[in-house]
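seq as requested:
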Amino acid sequence: MDSHSFTFCATRCVARPSGALHLPDHDTLCVSDLHLGKSDRIARRSGVMLPPYEIHETLEKLETDIHATAPQTLICLGDSFDDPDAAHSLPDDMRLWLTKLQAGRKWIWIEGNHDPGPMDIGGTHLAHIAIGTLTFRHIATDTPAEVSGHYHPKHRVAGRSRPAFLYDQSRMVLPAYGAYTGGLSSDAPDLRRLFGPHPIAVLTGKKAVAVPITENPPPPRVRGRSS
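struct tokens:
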């Protein structure tokens, strides 16, 4: 099996290799930080042209996860669009594709810092939502049993960094799902402060692989010369 199954706050969870989180007991699939339209936003603001393939690649991956899990509810956990204009300028064929993915299921857009307002794209726009024992929102708070995104976590093993789920006993942060998204190292202070002493990273890729995150050893002390 390529996914990683685990229990988080009394809820059965499946971390898929794509970066999607599946809650099989609740027929729910959650993805975070799609950042659809990022290439368009960069072109508008800087004039730098990137290959405009990220929407297609991201929706293709999402379609695969939907077909594999058949969720009744799909949560997009914020920053689904790179900015409000990216949502409005979504190409017609991509908008139609997204509409087909939404058909027959409850679709929740959680507000993010990049897309804080409702969009004319179908679905329901919320600040957060509770599913079973878990609360889903874009940016982590002090709420227990919380699933969030925003930080695009990555974790390095054997010299290679991969997008990763991070979780401990009370909090989970999802990796960015979008094709044109960077990442923040799991040892960055903004991420480490969110977790207890022994969090778990689930690396994405061809297979979801869970590894414990160990504390970084302190830097070696530099001995001064005696005078």
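The longest strand covers residues 160-167.
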